[in-house]
Specification:
78% helix; 0% strand; mainly alpha; 391 residues
Length: 391
Amino acid sequence: MIEQPGDLSKTNSSSLFDKLKGGNLQLLVMVIALIFIMIFFSFMTEWSYLTPRNISNLFRQTAITGILAIGMVFVIISGEIDLSVGSLMGLLGGIAAILDVWFGLPLFMTIVITLIAGLVLGVWNGWWVAYRKVPSFIVTLAGYLAFRGILIGITNGTTVAPISEGMEFIGQSYLPNIVSLIIGLACLSVYFGWQKKRNAMRKKYELSVPSMQSSLIRNTIIALAVLVVIFILNEYRGVPTPVLLLTFFILVGTFIATKTRFGRRIYAIGGNIEASRLSGINVERTKLLVYAMNGFLVAVAGLILSSRLGAGSPSAGNIAELDAIAACVIGGTSMAGGVGTVFGAVIGAFIMASLDNGMSMMDVPTFWQYIVKGGVLLLAVWMDSAMKQQR
């Protein structure tokens, strides 16, 4: 049967839609949403929203939620949840401040003890979920209450301040302009080199590879985006250290999710836990490691938070778990498990930070900020459900 021109166009459009129905459509929607948010808040704030100073502040806000979202996305992909990350971040940040202010420990010892504490408390949550079979919702809800109580207890309900200059470096320092530019170019070189090697391997095994034209366009857009962000941040004071840490954990998290057996096991468990168990995957150990990794990342976020605040506060990290979960969902992570990406979660965190930042600049009342963020979360979940039904 000869295909008519109309049929051919229909086939091509259908093929294009099929390609967009995956993660590409989710990414496209997020990019469009970001552009709309930027334009709207820029117009409403007489373009002060896009000043280098505010963009630098926006990236610093994203760093904490983004790091929390990286840990949270692995937990949700595995089919679980963690409602305790906000309280745990406040507790670990409070511990860091106490070690620094009250005990006067060197910065290195403060960081090591805080990270170990995060790892241990993450393992504690994971042990109850994986080996005691207590639902993660209950375990982490208990942690949400207990960790906040411990924080109030060890700080006596008072703010622990002022932290040392060394501690301030973690969350308040900036990279020199030339250093940030060199790091950016080095990361781009590594990425393009890896991409070239991957395409060569795919050709070797006769697998499909992107066309040279599409690869060139995509790589040009990525390079321009990275360099533009670096130049804008350098216009203020440089790339903030928390943003550098976030970038590092994005790369590590993406590598774990896409290039390791551990990452593939997490997706398999979230997709079908019984099939994973029958295929030989140690489900309990994998979930324990996921919670341990999450606890470690929460400790990093706690260090940055205390450094940025310049103190340890009994109210630090309040409802941060909701921002982290919302960032994951907005970024395309399925609450049913088995679906999600690190990059998508961080983009979701950037969208949440953009909303917070823009509404604060407009002096929007706090209650309206909560309503808007809740509406955005509900819309993201609805879109995810609608896309699944179309598939």
